[in-house]
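Re: that backbone. Tokens:
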């Protein structure tokens, strides 16, 4: 009986092939759009998701625009629970053309040691450490511009004016899929030496301090101790976990993220309405058939199940194609926008959300037609013949 039911539902689903193809096409577009929009949202939070619980970020309590004295490093190291301290400055230069945007940081020598997710060969790391003008680039960034180790990379300074020239000494790979491979690093000492010559007041200062702690569960307590150390000073600090620091940037564009989330669900609601209309039309066309089945002894539950299965089969085909297309299209989309969304990977939960959405669409779209068809009277149904 069940085999016959499945076969009947399949034949009914493809009885009107044009309508079935158009419905499945709409489902594919909706499921695909839903997946890509969800991937955009997850890419927005990629930095926060990849953040380490054992790293703290210390910055000016006023704004990131204001730098901190480099002398703070010695007092930070004396705080119990602190294992390592490094510092960095946002550089914000232009490579060849203003469209070529990528994050650039001047970092202290110990910076990369605090990021074990950056995989660099020992030989390349040593070459970078001994080269005053040496630079380190992520694999995706190097591939985007065709860089290789030994290339000279010219960057025009904006925050720190002048024409700068770096030699690429190392390329790092991400240990995890959500590791950002679109960043460029060079020596803070190189930048600082130049500032001492052209703008002494900007020398010996850092934009942020990166602090590695021994126990992540002590992050709040250690942050409080560090900030208390610099309270009432000329440059008070705000210390927070790396994740909180990253989420601060996301909060600046929260309205965009919320809008994308809303649009993703609106897409599902629209295709749900389209699917409901398709199932309603199919059920109306087969009133006489359902009456005949009842006359032959088939139960109302059989007719309702037949309609639900037909809806599930159509949604299953659309969802399968939509999920399959999500991965290659996400890769293409990510290659175009990697400057702004450096980590653009389909999350493990996304295909499951797509499949769940397809099931909900199928069940809700078939609900009313299934109930109405199951309740149709034999006399009324047979009367519609001819």
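Recovered sequence:
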């Amino acid at each position: 009986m069940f085999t016959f039911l499945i076969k009947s539902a399949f034949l009914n689903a493809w009885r009107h092939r044009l309508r079935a193809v158009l419905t499945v096409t709409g489902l594919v577009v909706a499921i695909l759009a839903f997946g890509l929009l969800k991937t955009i949202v997850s890419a927005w939070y990629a930095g926060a998701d990849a953040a380490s619980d054992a790293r703290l970020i210390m910055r000016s309590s006023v704004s990131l625009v204001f730098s901190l004295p480099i002398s703070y490093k010695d007092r930070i190291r004396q705080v119990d629970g602190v294992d390592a301290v490094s510092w960095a400055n946002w550089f914000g230069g232009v490579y060849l053309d203003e469209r070529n945007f990528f994050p650039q940081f001047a970092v202290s020598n110990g910076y990369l040691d605090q990021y074990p997710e950056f995989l660099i060969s020992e030989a390349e790391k040593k070459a970078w450490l001994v080269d005053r003008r040496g630079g380190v680039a992520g694999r995706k960034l190097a591939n985007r511009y065709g860089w290789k180790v030994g290339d000279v990379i010219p960057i025009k300074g904006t925050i720190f004016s002048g024409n700068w020239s770096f030699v690429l000494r190392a390329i790092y790979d991400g240990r995890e899929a959500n590791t950002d491979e679109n960043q460029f690093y060079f020596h803070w000492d190189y930048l600082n030496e130049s500032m001492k010559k052209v703008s002494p007041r900007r020398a010996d200062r850092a934009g942020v301090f990166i602090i590695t702690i021994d126990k992540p569960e002590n992050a709040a307590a250690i942050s409080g101790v560090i900030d208390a150390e610099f309270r009432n000073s000329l440059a008070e600090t705000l210390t927070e976990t790396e994740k909180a620091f990253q989420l601060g940037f996301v909060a600046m564009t929260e309205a965009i993220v919320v809008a994308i989330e809303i649009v993703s669900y609106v897409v599902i609601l629209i295709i749900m309405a389209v699917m409901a209309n398709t199932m309603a039309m199919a059920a109306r066309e087969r009133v006489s058939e359902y009456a005949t089945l009842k006359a032959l002894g088939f139960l109302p539950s059989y007719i309702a199940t037949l309609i639900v299965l037909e809806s599930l089969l159509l949604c299953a085909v659309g969802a399968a194609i939509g999920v399959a297309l999500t991965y290659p299209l996400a890769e293409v989309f990510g290659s175009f926008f990697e400057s702004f969304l450096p980590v653009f990977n389909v999350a493990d939960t996304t295909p499951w959300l797509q499949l769940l959405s397809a099931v909900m669409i199928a069940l809700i779209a078939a609900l009313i037609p299934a109930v109405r068809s199951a309740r149709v009277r034999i006399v009324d149904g047979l009367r519609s013949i001819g």
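The mean pLDDT is 87. The radius of gyration is 30 Å.
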